[in-house]
């Protein structure tokens, strides 16, 4: 089946990225701020600089880890009809932006901190929007101890949507609590291993370093069968050389190092190649998600993920640049949206604004509506003798029209996509005039949509566990 997809690296360039990544891991190594993880890597054959906390990873260990990690698996949900199969067969699976710092109030339009109730509402709206396939807790909740907020966000999200939840984990203690809570819903730790209801984005700190809490959480989660997203956030010119090639090698090196850690901890554990890497804005120092180089970086990362046969999350979606709506130029939006042609299986970003620092209900509706039309580009097409239809060409004859031939009537709806004019009119404003309508849609969905509830006894036990966990962090 034919599918539109960009290519950036030729085969020789892919080989060069791989070879330079291996050289990076063997000669420069990765900083791992955890003695237990360094000991684990040492036992597996890595050279360790104990004083500098640097692990140098040999090529054979990288190759072995690539071989052990599964090429296909599912991001499971508590309602099984919502499972996400990886890799994607056609269009990417979309999720929300992750862990923004503030939200826009749906009633007042003002910026404010978010509560657990707000996060629950975001999860329910995501559940109601057919365009969203799994849920990344979109905002950081403010009324819980900040040392353990990911645990509260994962649990709140599980209770308020029927989809897979992609969480974050910043300590070994967090990871154990997340496993304990998800096991309540799944029916035990073995049931959770068979059907992992959540995954964890573990961000290397570019360049080439892993924080103690996150990397120890990764080991624990991998041993429990929880999928790990190696979420490289390499910034061209700040945390990698000011070249696209240097950025790509850093992304690839961090992903391979993360994969090695997971596979040593638990051979065969599910792992996702990931990147949300862009250049910095040289004028402000902030992440430039709308830089023209972003599509090339994402595409290169997608090619390397396919080279290793691993599912990936290397594209981003969403039109929220500064405020709500579509307040970016055609070129900026094009640069951002082209990352979806990178071969990515998963893509975050729905509902985010202000370079992923904020989020809103209205922007979730707007981004989902945009995707409704844009995903027409990701349909698969059959290319064979039947679809080439030379018999029809012969019947129509030279210089004649196919319009009245029965073949056209039988096939045009299957082969051609028809724009929704109302949704195109919304996009044509390129302004915030679409926000009011999106707000009305969000309110109606939040009012009308019901999520299948978790058993009350399970909820009660989970809240008890959370209360004790919060108390231990105050």
Structure characterization notes:
- The chain has about 475 residues and is α/β, with parallel strands linked by helices.
- It has two domains: about 325 residues, TIM Barrel (Alpha-Beta Barrel); about 30 residues, no CATH class.
- The chain is about 45% helix and about 15% strand.
- The strands form six sheets. The chain has a five-stranded parallel β-sheet. Strands 2-3-1-11 form a four-stranded mixed β-sheet.
- The relative contact order is 0.14.
Give the N-terminus to C-terminus distance in angstroms: 56 Å
Q: Structural class, from secondary structure content?
A: alpha/beta
Strand elements, count: 19
What would you report as the Rg, rounded to the nearest angstrom? 23 Å
Poorly predicted runs: none
Beta-strand residue percentage: 5-15%
- Biggest sheet strand line-up: 9-10-12-14-16
> Count of DSSP helices?
18
The CATH first-level class of the largest domain comes to Alpha Beta
The helicity comes to 40-55%
Q: Describe the largest sheet.
A: 5 strands, parallel
Q: How many domain regions?
A: 2
What's the overall geometry?
Answer: globular
* CATH level 4 superfamily of the largest domain: Trimethylamine methyltransferase-like
CATH topology of the largest domain: TIM Barrel
From the coordinates shown, what is the CATH architecture of the largest domain? Answer: Alpha-Beta Barrel
> Taking all residues together, what is the mean pLDDT?
95
């Amino acid at each position: 089946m034919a599918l539109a997809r960009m290519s950036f690296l030729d085969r020789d360039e892919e080989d060069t990225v791989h070879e330079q990544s291996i050289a990076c891991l063997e000669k420069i190594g990765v900083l791992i701020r955890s003695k237990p993880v360094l000991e684990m890597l040492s036992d597996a054959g890595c050279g360790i600089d104990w004083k500098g906390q640097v692990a140098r990873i040999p090529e054979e260990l990288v190759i072995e880890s690539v071989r052990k990690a599964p090429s296909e698996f599912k991001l499971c949900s508590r309602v099984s009809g919502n499972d996400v199969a990886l890799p994607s067969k056609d269009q990417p699976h979309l999720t929300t932006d992750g862990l923004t710092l503030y939200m826009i109030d749906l009633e007042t339009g003002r910026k404010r901190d978010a509560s657990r109730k707000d996060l629950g509402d975001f999860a329910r709206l995501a559940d109601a929007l057919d365009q969203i396939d799994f849920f990344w807790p979109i905002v950081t909740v403010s009324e819980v101890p900040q040392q353990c907020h990911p645990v509260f966000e994962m649990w709140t999200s599980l209770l308020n949507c029927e989809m897979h939840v992609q969480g974050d984990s910043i300590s070994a203690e967090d990871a154990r609590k997340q496993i304990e809570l998800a096991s309540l819903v799944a029916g035990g730790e073995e049931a959770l291993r068979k059907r992992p209801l959540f995954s964890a984005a573990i961000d290397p700190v570019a360049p080439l370093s892993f924080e103690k809490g996150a990397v120890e959480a990764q080991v624990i989660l991998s041993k429990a069968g929880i999928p790990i997203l190696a979420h490289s956030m390499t910034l061209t010119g700040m945390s990698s050389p000011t070249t696209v090639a240097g950025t790509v090698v850093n992304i690839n090196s961090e992903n391979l190092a993360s994969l090695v850690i997971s596979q040593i901890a638990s051979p065969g554990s599910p792992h996702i190649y990931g990147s949300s890497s862009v250049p910095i804005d040289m004028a402000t120092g902030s992440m430039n998600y709308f830089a023209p180089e972003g599509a090339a970086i994402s595409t290169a990362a997608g090619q390397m993920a396919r080279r290793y046969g691993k599912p990936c999350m290397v594209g981003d979606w969403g039109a929220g640049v500064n405020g709500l709506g579509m307040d970016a130029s055609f070129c900026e939006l094009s640069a951002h949206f082209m990352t979806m042609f990178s071969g990515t299986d998963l893509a975050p970003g729905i509902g985010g604004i202000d370079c992923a620092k904020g989020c809103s209900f209205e922007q979730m509706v707007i981004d989902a509506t945009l995707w409704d039309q844009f995903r027409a580009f990701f349909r698969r097409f059959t290319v064979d003798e039947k679809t080439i239809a030379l018999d029809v060409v012969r019947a129509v004859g030279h210089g004649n029209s196919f319009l009245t031939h029965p073949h056209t009537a039988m096939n045009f709806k299957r082969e051609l996509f028809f724009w929704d004019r109302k949704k195109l009119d919304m996009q044509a404003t390129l302004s915030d005039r679409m926000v009011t309508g999106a707000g009305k849609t969000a309110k109606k969905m939040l009012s009308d949509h019901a999520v299948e509830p978790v058993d009350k006894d399970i909820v009660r036990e989970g809240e008890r566990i959370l209360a004790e966990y919060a108390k231990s962090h105050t």
